[in-house]
Write a structure and sequence with these properties.
Layout: E1 9-14, H1 26-34, E2 39-45, H2 51-63, E3 68-73, H3 76-89, E4 97-101, H4 103-107, H5 114-132, E5 140-144, E6 148-152, H6 156-167, E7 171-175, E8 190-191, E9 196-197, E10 200-201, E11 211-212, H7 215-219, E12 224-227, E13 230-238, E14 241-248, H8 263-267, E15 271-273, E16 282-284, E17 286-287, E18 299-300, H9 310-314, E19 327-333, E20 335-338, E21 342-344, E22 359-361, H10 362-369, E23 390-397, H11 412-426, E24 431-436, H12 447-456, E25 459-470, E26 477-483, E27 489-493, E28 495-500, E29 502-504, H13 508-515, E30 542-544, H14 554-574, E31 576-580, E32 584-586, H15 596-600, E33 606-607, E34 615-616, H16 626-630, E35 636-638, H17 643-654
Parallel strand pairs: 1-2, 1-3, 3-4, 6-7, 6-20, 7-12, 20-30, 22-28, 23-24, 23-28, 24-25
Antiparallel strand pairs: 5-31, 8-9, 10-11, 13-14, 14-19, 15-16, 17-18, 21-29, 25-26, 26-27, 32-35, 33-34
Helix pairs in contact: 1-5, 2-3, 5-17, 6-14, 10-11, 11-12
Length: about 650
């Protein structure tokens, strides 16, 4: 089809119901298209994307010997792949097809101007016809996909992802920066909606006893390799062939030799605040993060260890090596799942937090309420250890606030309702007041918590907390509250609990740079598309799940983890990935090896080998064209968007 006179174009105009036909005169547009150069067939149809419309295209290609197709309809983002498949099924190369968007560009914006909408549609159809005449056949290539996956983050979502992939039979490398798995769920005690341990599940036949959510299943899986105290230092490659470098910090205690006897902890002379319990108690410099920790091995705190050697002397299995150094691990994987979770906002300076011991966050309250926590399930004031009689909970601290975080943290209301209900049921005489902007309990059966709180006597006051002051003698807190209507009033409480915003992990920007992923405006990881690809990223083969996308509860995190596992497993099960070659290509005679394309490529799809000639990794290239613009010698060209093809499109508009 090298000669222009051999080109035979078919044009198909879609009504899209009334979405297009209400503003664009499709009959006039079809008549116009039929008279354009090289057009041998033109027709309009109610819905070209329907089965009837698709068969219409196939029949026309066969009967009229069409070798180019133009569809004037909706956005290419919606149906370009559909129509490419149709022309391919009819025997044409899928890239001998062009789409004109006359819905979003003509009928919708000019709904009250039908003449202008129709005229504009003629411009777009003319441009599409001129461009399609210059298009060339483009082939496809296949690349192998390694049958192993890297899961970053050992919280609930990461654990579920690893287990699901292991169930499919794939090798999984689970990387967690903390000394143990479990994430936030390990710190929550009871969780909604099941009101059981965050790491427990109900019994399933034939077992009739509760099981730890992950402990046995993780440890007994030979195809799951867990790396704690580890971070992803570097990630290179592309879908199916990623090369990850893992930086592992020394634990100084062998996971294989440690029997968890605790003798090392007993003799350790160093005590520091326990970060797992948010400083509510202390731990030793050698410690087990929590009783159910996996791996169930003690760990040395390097920052506070004095290397006195007492732990080495008493260890019965000789599991301790204080001179252990960091080391790197190289992994080859086919897919990557990011499940790094979220953090709780530290509202320093807000409502006397950080100044008054009796102003805490919901996470600290959760540790108090946990029977395995620092206070053995008893709620007490940090200042004097007394049980508070009056508790205030202030909602949306750092959330829905342009000065801190403008977004809603989604599960904060449920956290407060869960804690308020549990406290009131355990301490009926305790006075609990929730100060809120709105109560948002949108999950399945979550409204029951709100109803139960009202039944047991929890008070709800809607408005703004203006000031909070502490009595230096008693430690009591005076709170001035302004309701939606009426004058402000002052109340005194023994303990104030701030329901803080849930924020991205502190190192999220560093990890995003390492993985070459994008962040959204709220600094969580950005999905490829919020509706059509909510768990994909801009890079094929890398997926997102859980709290790294934004605040969410455990059921939603597990649902997303199972979803991304299926996405990754589908890719790895096939064993190869097929891509089209509508990618950047290098004119080796023009390339001067300046490296501009390498620096500016957002997908790391271009490399500069020792030959000094840029090389495009076609599997990684997304065809964005940035390299074409940046190349100072015009050595880069984008297949399917070559200069002559773009200029033909411009000619089609100017010819009108």
């Amino acid at each position: 089809m090298s000669k222009l006179e051999d080109v035979r174009i078919g044009v198909f105009i879609c009504h899209c119901g009334l979405n297009i036909a209400k503003a664009v005169d499709v009959k006039a547009l079809t008549n116009f298209a039929s008279k354009l150069p090289n057009v041998v067939y033109a027709i309009d149809n109610e819905f070209v994307c329907s089965e009837y419309g698709q068969n219409l295209i196939k029949t026309a290609i066969r009967d009229h010997k069409l070798n180019r197709v133009v569809v004037a309809s909706c956005s290419p983002k919606l149906h370009e792949l559909t129509f490419r498949r149709v022309v391919e099924e009819a025997g044409l190369n899928p890239f001998l097809f062009e789409m004109a968007n006359i819905r979003e560009h003509c009928s919708w914006p000019h709904l009250s101007e039908p003449e202008e909408a129709t005229e504009k549609a003629k411009f777009l159809v003319s441009a599409a016809v001129e461009r399609v005449a210059t298009l060339e056949e483009i082939g496809k290539v296949k690349a192998p996909v390694k049958k192993s996956s890297l899961v970053i983050g050992g919280g609930i979502a990461g654990i579920q992802s690893a287990l699901s992939l292991a169930d499919y039979g794939f090798t999984v490398y689970l990387v967690e920066k903390q000394p143990t798995l479990g994430g936030k769920a390990a710190q929550l005690g009871r969780v909604f909606p099941t009101e059981d341990c965050g790491l427990c599940v109900a019994p399933q036949r034939p077992d009739m006893h509760r099981r730890c959510m992950y402990k046995t299943r993780i440890l007994m899986r030979p195809n799951i390799k867990v790396y704690t105290l580890s971070k992803v230092k570097n990630l290179e490659g592309y879908v199916g062939n990623f090369k990850a470098t893992i930086q592992r910090e020394p634990r100084c205690i062998s996971e294989e030799l440690c029997v968890g006897c605790g003798e090392c902890e007993r003799v350790c002379p160093v005590q520091v605040p326990n970060e797992f319990n948010f400083g509510l108690n202390k731990r030793k410099a050698v410690y087990l993060p929590f009783p159910q920790a996996v791996p169930h091995a003690y760990v040395i705190d390097h920052q506070n260890c004095t290397k006195c050697g007492k732990c080495i002397e008493i260890c019965p299995t000789k599991a301790i090596n204080l001179d252990e150094a960091p080391y790197e691990i190289a992994l080859d994987v086919g897919t990557v799942i990011v499940a790094t979770g979220f953090d709780e906002f530290e509202p320093i300076g807000m409502y006397s937090y950080g100044k008054s011991q009796n102003v805490i966050t919901q996470s600290r309250l959760a540790r108090m309420m946990d029977p395995g926590g620092p206070t053995v399930g008893e709620v007490s004031r940090p200042s004097d250890g007394e049980r508070p009689k009056r508790i205030a909970m202030i909602q949306c601290v750092g959330s829905r606030d342009p000065a801190t975080h403008p977004y809603c943290s989604k599960i904060c209301c449920m956290i407060s309702l869960k804690h308020a209900r549990s406290l009131k049921m355990k301490y009926p005489d305790m006075d609990i007041t929730v100060f809120y902007k709105d109560i948002r309990a949108s999950g399945k059966n979550y409204d029951i918590y709100y109803d139960d709180c009202q039944k047991v006597g929890v008070k709800f006051l809607r408005g703004e907390v203006e000031t909070l002051l502490e009595d230096p003698k008693t430690g009591n807190l005076s709170l001035q509250f302004k309701p939606l209507s009426g004058p402000p009033h002052l109340s005194e409480f023994d303990l104030v609990v701030l329901t803080s915003a849930l924020t991205p992990q502190k190192d999220v920007e560093e990890l995003a740079r390492t993985l070459n992923l994008s962040l959204s405006s709220d600094n969580f990881f950005a999905e490829s598309h919020p509706k059509l690809a909510p768990l994909d990223t801009k890079l094929d083969g890398i997926y997102l799940c859980g709290g790294c996308l934004g605040p969410k509860d455990i059921p939603e995190s597990i649902t997303q983890a199972m979803a991304v596992s299926s996405r990754a497993a589908t890719l790895m099960a096939v064993g190869e990935v097929e891509i089209d070659l509508a990618k950047a290509v290098v004119d080796e005679d023009r390339c001067i090896g300046c490296g501009n394309c390498v620096i500016t490529c957002p997908y790391r799809a271009i490399e500069l080998p020792l030959t000094g000639i840029a090389h495009v990794i076609e599997v990684a290239c997304k065809g964005c064209g940035i390299c074409v613009v940046e190349c100072p010698t015009m050595a880069m060209e984008l297949r399917h968007y070559k200069n002559k093809q773009l200029l033909a499109q411009i000619d089609g508009i100017l010819a009108r």
